[in-house]
Amino acid sequence: MVDQELNMSSEAVEISDQAESVRVSDADRQQLLLGGLLVGACFVFLFWNFLRAQFNFAIHQQADWGHTLIIPFITGYFVYLKRETLLKVPFRTNWLGLLPIIVGAGAYFFFWLGPDAFMHHNLQGAAVALTLFGIVLTFFGTRATGHLLFPLAYLAVFGQRISDRLMGLVTNEMQDIAAIGSYYVLILLGFTVEKLGNVLVVVDQAGVENPLNIAEACSGMRMLMAFLALGVFIAYTGLSRLWQQVALVLLAVPTAIFVNILRVVTLAWLSLYDTDFAAGDFHHFIGLVWLVPALFIYLGLVWVLRNLVIEPDAPTAGGTPS
């Protein structure tokens, strides 16, 4: 009897503690909401120059960086998926988070107002990401921040325009691949074409030569960034096995290259009717049009990866597979 009373007493204490933690959590949510709005307003004010520049890139270069506008919403969705885990973790203030806040804010102003050699959009973006990490660590603690590392990394990598200086590290190779691939596809389709470096010269039936320059904008690098962002999103939310997730992200590279080759071939074909089709706004329009079949191609790869694995049937009540 004494043991039972002690057990009942301990259970009552545990229930009381759980109820108290729930009440505290409810109160904390209101404080977190108000505090979050205040911190968010300060964050936007502090990094307004970077945020405005990034928004302008996305608006004025939609074919290249328009996808960055939806990255914050995808990041929020990642956090939403973690909501049950986060609510089970007690939020504890961690003052160590002040260190990345101070370093990040200081680095941002140095990369913004410092010497011209260091005034770089992506360096500013890295400083903003470091500051955001510090804010999360300060207000939510180490355990909660651990669950938010992936959403924060996704936002930092895909939520900003990659500068031409960094893109140039692989752009030349992408240009060569686009030129060579487009050349052979045009040959297979029966076109008379000559390849001069990264310039394709398509000859029409009248013998008129129509040069098409595979410039940096046609390298497919920007399309690759959009596909990588999409691939990581689908892999994280739609695939359960690590090898499937890694395979899908890696498949973003050949998919972007393949679609970009088809885009160049389309421009080369249209240039036979009007050379203006291969330049200006129509050039960007063709790139946007090809994004639609590209998306279906990528979703087809997701279907293939999912169906490569046959899940065992759930056991019946008798313990044997159905």
Protein model, in words:
The structure is a single chain. With 322 residues, the protein is mainly alpha-helical. The protein has helices at 2-46, 48-60, 62-65, 71-81, 83-88, 98-113, 121-158, 164-188, 221-238, 242-271, 280-307; strands spanning 192-196, 199-203, 209-213. It has 2 domains: 47-161, no CATH class; 166-307, no CATH class. It has 11 helices and 3 strands, in the order ααααααααβββααα. It is globular and about 75 Å long. The relative contact order is 0.08. Residues 11-24 and 316-322 have low confidence and may be disordered.
Q: What structural keywords apply?
A:
single chain, 322 residues, mainly alpha, 2 domains, three-stranded antiparallel β-sheet, 3 strands, 5% strand, globular, disordered C terminus
Summarize the structure.
The protein has 322 residues and is mainly alpha-helical. The chain folds into 2 domains: 47-161, no CATH class; 166-307, no CATH class. The chain has helices at residues 2-46, 48-60, 62-65, 71-81, 83-88, 98-113, 121-158, 164-188, 221-238, 242-271, 280-307, and strands at 192-196, 199-203, 209-213.
Helix content, binned percent? over 70%
Number of strands: 3
Helix tally equals 11
Give the neighbour order of strands across the main sheet: 1-2-3
Name the shape in a single word.
globular
- Name the helix and strand elements from N-terminus to C-terminus, one letter apiece: HHHHHHHHEEEHHH
Number of domains: 2
Task: Decide which structural class fits the backbone.
Answer: mainly alpha
Give the C-alpha Rg.
27 Å
Poorly predicted regions = 11-24, 316-322
The biggest sheet, with number of strands, parallel, antiparallel or mixed sense and barrel status, is: 3 strands, antiparallel
